[in-house]
Amino acid sequence: MEYKIYQPHEKLKAWIRYFWSYDSMALEKKVLHIRSFADQYPRLIFQDINTFSPIKDANGNIMPLCYLSGLDTKPSDAFWDTQFSHFGVSFYPHALHALFGIDASEMTNRMVDINLLDKTEIPFLLLDAQDHHNRVQILSTYFYERLYHGKIDQTINDLFHSNKSWLWNMEKKQQQLAGHYGLSERQLQRRFKINTGVSMTKFGRLIRFENALKVLPTAVYGDLTALTYDLQYADQSHFNTDFKEFSGLSPYQFIRKESLGTESSSFIYLSE
């Protein structure tokens, strides 16, 4: 499996974390199980169905040629073969509102064909592209044009890029944040949810969960109690509850599972 990251143009860096490609030409064709955990970063996924089998959801439904996944607050499952070529975009949490002018809560925990949000030829342009670098160029032009006509909330953009330190304990600092931006607490909460799709409190929990994902792969079971407090959970019970809600696994189960690969908060396993 070959995973590559491509940096966005300077004019897109406030909205796009990176472009990525994931390719595999395994000799033996098997089925992979992809478990996607809760994830603060929306994404676009394009699949090359001219050459390879399509991605299927947990119910066996074929996913669209090019689709958008909003911010996720619960785990989901998908399946594809060990021979594949996928290309994607990892967005910042507030990007879908800016790019598509929608209330981002309409996309939370949903995977939607891009054509339902914009009648565009982008899926077919990506399918006909020469290579992944060409796909970066195609999507960069598309997103730049979308931003030009989009709905950019400068306050929320500033929060994600200039005041990142506030995000860790966001649920405890909402009043301070609102005062910092000259807004009422209710105004800030409303604008945050429109831009990201979730409340500030839920977003704070997601950040703690994702920080747990970063440290757990190198942890052993005896470390979990200490990690609980390092990650600013009140106690291990709260840690276990949040982790189970956002991943479908206990922290111990996650430590024991060996993935074949990962992209953001998605982990790839050989299907049992």
Automatic annotation (TrEMBL):
Gene3D superfamilies: Homeodomain-like. Pfam families: DUF6597, HTH_18. Keywords: DNA-binding, Transcription, Transcription regulation. Residues 175-257 form the HTH araC/xylS-type domain. InterPro entries: AraC_XylS_family_regulators, DUF6597, HTH_AraC. PANTHER family: HTH-TYPE TRANSCRIPTIONAL ACTIVATOR RHAS (PTHR46796:SF13), HTH-TYPE TRANSCRIPTIONAL ACTIVATOR RHAS-RELATED (PTHR46796). This is Helix-turn-helix domain-containing protein. The lineage of its organism: Bacteria, Pseudomonadati, Bacteroidota, Flavobacteriia, Flavobacteriales.
